[in-house]
Amino acid sequence: MIALRGLCVRTGTGHLAVRDVDLTIQAGQRLGVVGESGSGKTMLALSMMGMVPDGLQVEGQVLVDGHSIAAEDERAWRSHRARSVAMIFQEPMAALNPLVRVGDTIAEPLRRHLGLSRRDARARALNLLEETGIPQARRRLDQYPHELSGGQRQRVLIALALACDPQLLIADEPTTALDAQVALRITDLLVRLSQERRMGLLFISHDLAAVSRTTSDIMVMYGGDVVERGRTASVLSAPEHPYTRGLLAARPSLMTRSRRLPTIPGTVPQLNALAAGCRFAGRCARELPICASRRPPLSPTETGQAACHLLGAQA
Amino acid sequence: MSYFLARRIAGFLLTLFVVSIVVFAVMNVLPGDPALTILGLDSTEEARAALRGRLGLDEPVVQRYLAWIGGALHGDLGQSYSFDVPVSGLIAERLPLTLSLAVSGMALTIGLALTMGLTAAARHGRAGDWAIMLLSQLGIAVPAFWLSMLLVLLFAVKLRWLPPGGFPGWGDPVAAARSLVLPTVALALVQSAVLARVTRSAALEVMRQDFVRTARATGFAPRHVLWRHVLPNALVPIVTIVGLQFAGLVTGTIVIENVFYLPGLGRLLFQSIANRDLITVQALVMLFAAIVVTANFLVDIAYVVIDPRLRAQRA
Amino acid sequence: MTARLPANILIGAVLVALVAGAAVLSAVWTPYPYAAIDVANKFAAPSATHWLGTDQLGRDLVSQLMAAAGNSMTVAVVAVGIGCSVGTVLGLLAAARGGWVEEIIMRLSDLGFAFPALLFAIMLAAAFGPSLSMVVIAIAFINIPTFARVSRAAANQIWRREYVFAARAAGMSSFAISRDHVLPNIAAPVIVQATIEFAVAILVEAALSYLGLGAQPPAPSWGRMLAEAQTLMYLAPQLAIWPGMCIVTAVLGFGLLGDGLRDISDPRLARQRSA
């Protein structure tokens, strides 16, 4: 079980890239994290790996099986990476060492972390590759990354992430760089692996369709804050937060194809421009006077929780 | 692959051919009368004529060149004028010493440079990085022969740990090795300065790439990530500089042998210059140039071995 | 980009100014004539009269070092100057003509890599007798390919610019374009290279003079002073220190300056650095 308690990520200039996130991911739970770029979702993921870039500071607690791991305890983190939490990234093209054969890449953690022999590691690597459904898995073992397609590489990365049987797999925009058909197969694979292995899945994306297909729970982030969370299906069908609504409205669908897509005006504000109040204030179509000065707390809604002053106003 | 190789080999042989023409022209044709150079201005015309006859200098230039290069291909580099023995014998006698110095110097250079460069890269922007960069900047500016003198002053004159120069012969391997310590260190310290800088910047370049993050996310220790994932990918620029440095190493051994009075090829070259032994000088200069050209050629080939992507491209 | 100069340029410039200043000054004034022998005063310790003391013949060390700076700088200026001019002209020619002219120039410049400067100088010294002019010729010769490459690469970029197309459309000859448009625009990389080659030239001159193939006695040279000091290592180790310090100062100065100039003149590198 992986949990975050009051997690903040502070930048060198003192601003918060992630603010006060509480989160628990149970075995087999699939949680989607949604938001535009700059919303802090990748920082959140990296903080769960102990891999926040130099110069940024993590505050609050990251708990692995109930034990808190200090952000600066690199040694402790190292023993948790791959074993407790594994991660796959956005660019499968760049995420594999171009000089190492696929089989050796997957065998490396098996040998170093699990102490398997060369033979056993290779056999396990083959099993893992087969589990990811890569075609001609045996042949792939001796191929180099540049000989594989993007989807195949993402499967290799998934096999690598599964090598030490982690409790949680973080997938940071795993399908963004892939074409639509391949993306669908990768998300389905992630769901299947999570179910079969009782493995938690943190699925980060800005693609609401992918999130709704992949996850059971959802967390919407904006400017480092969690603005809404709940069951994926409920939140996406009845969003409470204006930002979530905006995201849904900006989503292309077959019905709206001929129309010009609605967009949320403005862009995610630069961190140093973020005020004390609601971070969506200024871009929000339904802004109240209070929004700019006071930060709305996460409060219960019919579908989960949302952080918006409108909720109180309606009640 | 074979086409690529054939082209490289052809280029290599062509370069060697042109280099031999340059050496022959400078040593044999441009000075006018080699007999005059060898015997000096106070020699008699009869003596010079006799020498010209003995050396075959009365033949046409092209024929002389062909005779020289033809002999060289059969291992016959002519008769040394001052020692009155075959030049090839002189070279064979002194080659082991020069080779030992060059090989141990190169090995120490590479070991030092990779360690310093990778350490600096790992501590990028911190005190360790600064110290190593400062040291290497100094190393580039220090002439090898002066560094040698300082080493002799400290370790031979002051501390009396090691001999200040000379070579006891291979009969006593310990003494022989001891007399090679300071020359090797002097050679390597200077050579490794440039290589360490190149290693550092190449490693920094690689460390920005995604697969390094993958390796970290797989829970590998920084040292393992650095040597197993970063270094191999940084090798192309490093090998290029190692190849170019071979030229520096060759001239370095020439100088160092003369600083430490080591009877190797470099010392032979200077004795031959002092003795106006043009035939030996010509053979040695050609040999040194050939070594440099060969090193450059091997670097070209090495790229393909290092990077499987290039292997595919050039197939 | 702040207006503040990077540290390496600043330090480099100070060191270069120091050496160049000493070199220029030595042409008109040194504390003593550098070759003045005063055997009664040999191996004198540093004092008010002889700031760094005297050598085995009682010659004033400061005067020798200053005169040697002049020698060293002259060799570097002349050798790099020749190599730079000839090489740049060849590079411009290669870029302007392209085709087989470019091919031949570049293949020939490949040859430069077969001969390290020191080896080439040794060969010339063996064939023509050791002298400082042989050193100059050798360094100049070895510099030609380097500058040909640098200037050709830079010039080829300029030839793709629109103002060159415009000039060609206006009927300017390729010679005139090379002179008026290309040359001024490749000056930066060529100057950077020249600064770096200056450092190399000083090192090579010192090494050759040390080996007895460069400056001949009594011509002052840091390398030759070190060669003499080596024979006196047990007797007067201090003599082995100062000439070496001078070489390091000069080489370090030009090296730092060259690195710094390259950093600020190559926006590609600067971007990498800030990334």
Keywords:
heterotrimer, A: 315 residues, alpha/beta, Rossmann fold, globular, B: 315 residues, mainly alpha, MetI-like fold, 2 domains
Secondary structure elements and pairings:
The complex is a heterotrimer of chains A (315), B (315) and C (275).
Chain A: E1 2-10, E2 16-25, E3 30-34, H1 41-49, E4 57-64, E5 67-68, H2 74-80, E6 85-88, H3 102-114, H4 118-131, H5 137-140, H6 150-162, E7 168-172, H7 180-197, E8 200-205, H8 208-214, E9 217-222, E10 225-231, H9 232-237, H10 242-249, E11 299-300, E12 304-306, H11 309-314
Parallel strand pairs in A: 3-8, 3-9, 6-7, 7-8
Antiparallel strand pairs in A: 1-2, 1-4, 4-5, 9-10, 10-12, 11-12
Helix pairs in contact in A: 3-4, 3-6, 4-6
Chain B: H1 2-29, H2 34-39, H3 45-55, H4 61-73, H5 87-122, H6 127-141, H7 144-158, H8 173-207, H9 210-217, H10 222-259, H11 265-274, H12 278-306, H13 308-314
Chain C: H1 7-28, H2 61-97, H3 99-111, H4 117-128, H5 132-159, H6 162-169, H7 174-210, H8 222-231, H9 242-265, H10 267-274
What is the CATH homology-level superfamily of chain C? MetI-like
In total, the number of domains of chain A comes to 1
- The CATH superfamily of chain A is known as P-loop containing nucleotide triphosphate hydrolases
Question: Which pair of chains has the greatest number of interface residues, and how are they split between the two chains?
Answer: B-C, 48 and 44 residues
Structural class of chain A: alpha/beta
How many structural domains can be distinguished in the coordinates of chain C?
1
Q: Tell me how many strands of chain A there are.
A: 12
**Inertia-based shape of chain C:** elongated
Distance, first to last CA of chain A: 35 Å
| CATH architecture label of chain A | 3-Layer(aba) Sandwich
CATH topology of chain A: Rossmann fold
Report the radius of gyration of chain C as a whole number of Å: 22 Å
User: What is the class of chain C in the CATH system?
Assistant: Mainly Alpha
The tally of helices of chain A reads 11
Low-confidence stretches of chain C: 269-275
Kindly report the CATH topology of chain C.
Answer: MetI-like fold
Strand order of the largest sheet of chain A: 6-7-8-3-9-10-12-11
Q: Give the helices and strands of chain A as they follow along the chain.
A: EEEHEEHEHHHHEHEHEEHHEEH
Give the oligomer, counting copies of the same chain as homo and different chains as hetero.
heterotrimer
The helix fraction of chain A, in percent, is: 25-40%
